[in-house]
Amino acid sequence: MVKLTTDVIERKCSQILTTKSLSKTMKKEELQKLTHLHMNDMFISSIGNLDVCKSLKVLYLQNNNISKMKNLHVACNLTHLYLQHNAIIKMENLESLENLQKLYLGHNNIVVVEGLENLRQLRELHIESQRMPPGESLCFEPRSALTLSMCLRILDISDNKMTSLGDLAGFHELNTLEAGHNLIASMDDLSATVSTLTSLKDLTLRDNPVVRSYRYRENLIANSTSLVNLDGKIVTDTCRSFLRRFKMEKHNRRTRRTTKTPLGDDITNSLNLPPAFKRSISRAIFQHPGPQLSVKITPGSMEINQLQVFPSWKSASGITSVRDNHVTPRPFWSNVSKNKETRLTRSLVNNKAIALPPL
């Protein structure tokens, strides 16, 4: 394994110069003016002292065996740092890189995005395809997320076993988001997060369970005011405007349906009558619905006064008939006095008198 030191850098730069001219060699004082350093694919396992490389702006360390981020505080002028395809477990020792604009950390062993509180100039973060323990997924530390929400424009978090994008809510500067090959399944959670990404134009969510949801594309477009490209397909302004109007109309209908209308208003509104007449009918139906009880409570005793209690119709004097366990009123004409005299009529056949039953 190789440790990145000033001597290693000097030898590497000398080899590069030798390929161009056999007479040229790298001197240590020239390392102070070095702005780009290519140390990729060199089996480097750790980063040593880089005091001599104070002018570095771009550092290539991809495809090595680096497990810890350290000794980068000297290169405070760095704008691009390439550390993908290493064995990094934790993001640390980045506080001094206040000028860093692009950070590449894909294909490492990182679980938490952290240590970025001071990187207010960071524009791109590539942290895709992390090798994580079973059951773990990539997440964002709140302080780092707050800083990134104010500056980050391009973010690649694909293939990280993420189940939600809630940590990205409020990333107002985010322009491009790569989040494919994850485990995002909730359409409501995704729509709520996308609605807060006010600058988002390019979104990729391929190979997530959520893409199989009903009207997945329509929901995302309706919840975004800036989306131009979704999973590689163009989103037109006409389509976005139509879906947003459709969403608003659907919301309004749902609101009207759930709004409770008083029963009196519901009945009177169904009648094609003048407003004053409707109010009269409503009062007539619902102002005195029936008997009421007034309860008067005094210390040590309770009195119940019964007001407006009307007798039941079943107790009326004319109710005498019971049939199939139901009380039925007797016809009013049954109170008419009956003439018990027997009427006689003669048969037209044999002139015999026939007695008829009384009425």
UniProtKB/TrEMBL annotation:
Domain of life, source organism = Eukaryota
Q: Which UniProt keywords apply?
A: Leucine-rich repeat, Repeat
Q: Does the keyword Repeat apply?
A: yes
Looking at the keywords, is Repeat present?
Answer: yes
Q: Which residues form a coiled coil?
A: none
Instruction: List the Pfam families.
Output: LRR_4 (PF12799)
- Matches recorded under PANTHER family: LEUCINE-RICH REPEAT AND IQ DOMAIN-CONTAINING PROTEIN 1-RELATED, LEUCINE-RICH REPEAT-CONTAINING PROTEIN 9
State the name under which the record lists this protein.
Leucine-rich repeat-containing protein 67
